[in-house]
Design a protein that fits this description.
By secondary structure, the chain is of the alpha+beta class. It is built from 10 helices and 11 strands. It has 2 domains: about 5-155, Jelly Rolls (Sandwich); about 160-244, Arc Repressor Mutant, subunit A. Strands 1-8-3-6 form a 4-stranded antiparallel beta sheet.
Length: about 240
Amino acid sequence: MATASSRKVIAGTADKLALLRSHPLFGQLPAAALDHLGAYMQRRTLPRGTPIFAKGDPGTGLIGVLSGAVKISVPSVDGRDIVLVIMHEGDVFGEIALLDGHPRTADASAMTDCELMSIERRDFLQFVRNQPDLMIKIIEILCARLRRTTQQVQELTFLNLASRLAKALLRLTEEAQASAPARTVAITQREISQIIGRSRESTNKQLRAWAKQGWIHLERGAVTVLQRDKLVEVAAQGSELDSA
């Protein structure tokens, strides 16, 4: 007869496997492989603002986002954070330190209340040796991140504030309410300024100008894009030289 403790363990295992089956990276693995991976997987829930790891920390494993949003950032020389990317449900991060075993290359923190899964490096590397298709997926993720970083460097170097900001808002709202004309993203103006590498004051000034024109709607901790086509036009315009 199953005890309450054993029933809890069985339920927890079933929950893990359900999460893995629905995850974009792991969902196509054979059932036996999912069972194996589920035995290694750990889940944790974090409130908004909680640090997950810091640049220079040991790279102990791969982390996946089950719900919520995670900010990946690096500190600049003047003490400000520069946001490299925001991870959402279905994304994984920490893959660089996972593969090379070196310290973390950036900070990670919970932008919202989050549920995360993690797999220790020693367990994952042992597992992935028998899953070449999964390793190819990891490589594809690394390549996509490299392409995104290259694009971000180009934007920070050549685009004026308005174009940077328009591109950032379009990216941030791309997956939010994809079928609706108005798209909302939960993010503060300070976090937006960290993404585009400008001051909060100049970012706020441009956002308020667009809000006055009816292109966006601002509220505490969120931005709603009302006229996406207007932002697309701005995103395609001018460089820093144009605005000089």
